[in-house]
């Protein structure tokens, strides 16, 4: 049962990065800037804006430096980017990025298919990136994938994840995010796992990163909040997943992240504040659809916020009464006897 004292959570939108990495068609820089500015206008303060990955691997982010150069940076806004290696870090440090996310999978198999390296090699490479990033004054988040289950190896023991996290903690990371990369998690599993993580890593920033492959994403966020985690990744319109070059090779279904506007709408209805203007966020979602030229996942951008619809059926009620009439208790005569 959620604690009624929970008053506020932090929402981190990943639409401009993870939401676009699965798109085969490269989006122009100006359109990316328009999308980020729409998120800022909605009050989103934590935005993953790009990825400093090799353009040969993901062409979508060949414009990372150009985007950062043109992007305004309000003082209270935190921009971060994915940085998979030293070369990516060198590029990131040359911009005004606030922090980086260092990707690493919880299993050997997923590290190989995702980053073409074993877990041991990924940890060794990550240590160099983390130490240099900290020396450059960047906030460092270790982003763990396939934590709740792996499409390659299946069950992932929590102990193995904790072991990786302890090594990352020793390397100096500021935050640990736990990814349900292919949507295998369930709320009971999430609550138990994250409660244990909080106990193991007191004082560490703990972040959730759920994909909504099997429709359990929002329920998993509530389980995480119940466990005490108050920072949550999501993506505008529920976009995201594996890069377009690999997404169909070893997993199936809609691979997107949980939808930012759906998450914000749910939490605000529960009096858990996000600091985000939902109506403006929905406008940002519709902008995203126009940029990509198709309808995107997500519910609330189509149905509208709950409170915005209160009383919206009054016109239909008037029509119904005029057309069909209605009966009240006073209109019903008891003819018995």
Task: Kindly give the count of domains.
Answer: 1
Strand order of the largest sheet: 1-2-3-4-5-6-7-8
Radius of gyration: 22 Å
Give the CATH class.
Alpha Beta
Q: What count of helical segments does DSSP give?
A: 13
Count of distinct strands: 8
Helix/strand structural class: alpha/beta
Major beta-sheet overview: 8 strands, parallel, barrel
CATH superfamily: Aldolase class I
The CATH architecture can be named as: Alpha-Beta Barrel
Report the sheet-strand fraction: 5-15%
List the secondary-structure elements in sequence, H or E. EHHEHEHEHHEHEHEHEHHHH
Write a brief caption for the model.
This protein has 337 residues and is an alpha/beta fold.
Task: Explain what the structure shows.
The protein is α/β, with parallel strands linked by helices and 337 residues long. The protein has one domain (10-308): TIM Barrel, CATH 3.20.20.70. The chain has helices spanning 18-21, 29-41, 64-70, 86-93, 108-115, 119-135, 158-171, 187-200, 217-227, 260-269, 278-292, 300-303, 314-324, and strands at residues 10-13, 46-51, 78-82, 99-105, 139-145, 175-180, 205-210, 231-234. It is globular, with a radius of gyration of 22 Å. The mean pLDDT is 92.
Structure keywords:
TIM Barrel, alpha/beta, globular, 337 residues, 8 strands
Topology:
Layout: E1 10-13, H1 18-21, H2 29-41, E2 46-51, H3 64-70, E3 78-82, H4 86-93, E4 99-105, H5 108-115, H6 119-135, E5 139-145, H7 158-171, E6 175-180, H8 187-200, E7 205-210, H9 217-227, E8 231-234, H10 260-269, H11 278-292, H12 300-303, H13 314-324
Parallel strand pairs: 1-2, 1-8, 2-3, 3-4, 4-5, 5-6, 6-7, 7-8
């Amino acid at each position: 049962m959620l604690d009624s004292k929970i008053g506020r959570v932090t929402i981190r939108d990943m639409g401009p990065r993870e939401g676009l990495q699965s798109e085969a068609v490269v989006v122009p820089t100006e359109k990316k800037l328009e999308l980020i500015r729409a998120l800022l206008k909605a009050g989103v303060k934590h935005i993953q804006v790009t990825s400093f990955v090799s353009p040969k691997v993901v062409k979508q982010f060949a414009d990372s430096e150009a985007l950062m150069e043109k992007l305004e940076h309000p003082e209270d806004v935190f921009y971060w980017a994915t940085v998979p290696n030293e070369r990516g870090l060198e590029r990131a440090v040359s911009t005004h990025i606030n922090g980086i996310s260092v990707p690493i999978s919880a299993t050997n198999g997923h590290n190989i298919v995702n980053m073409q390296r074993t877990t041991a090699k990924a940890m060794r490479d990550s240590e160099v990136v983390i130490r240099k990033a900290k020396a450059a004054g960047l906030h460092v988040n270790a982003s763990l994938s396939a934590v709740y289950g792996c499409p390659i190896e299946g069950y992932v023991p929590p102990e193995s994840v904790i072991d990786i996290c302890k090594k990352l903690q020793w390397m100096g990371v500021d935050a640990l995010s736990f990814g349900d990369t292919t949507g295998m998690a369930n709320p009971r599993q999430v609550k138990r796992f994250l409660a244990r993580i909080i106990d193991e890593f007191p004082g560490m920033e703990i972040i959730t990163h759920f994909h909504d492959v099997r429709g359990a994403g929002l329920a998993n966020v509530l389980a995480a909040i119940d466990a005490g985690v108050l920072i949550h990744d999501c993506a505008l319109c529920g976009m995201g997943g594996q890069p377009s070059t690999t997404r169909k090779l070893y997993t199936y279904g809609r691979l997107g992240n949980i939808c930012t506007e759906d998450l914000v709408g749910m939490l605000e209805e529960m009096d858990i504040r996000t600091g985000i203007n939902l109506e403006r966020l929905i406008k940002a979602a519709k902008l995203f659809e126009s940029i990509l030229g198709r309808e995107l996942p997500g519910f609330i951008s189509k149905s509208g916020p709950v409170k915005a619809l209160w009383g919206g059926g009054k016109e239909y009620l008037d029509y119904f009464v005029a057309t069909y009439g209605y009966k009240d208790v006073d209109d019903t005569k008891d003819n018995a006897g």
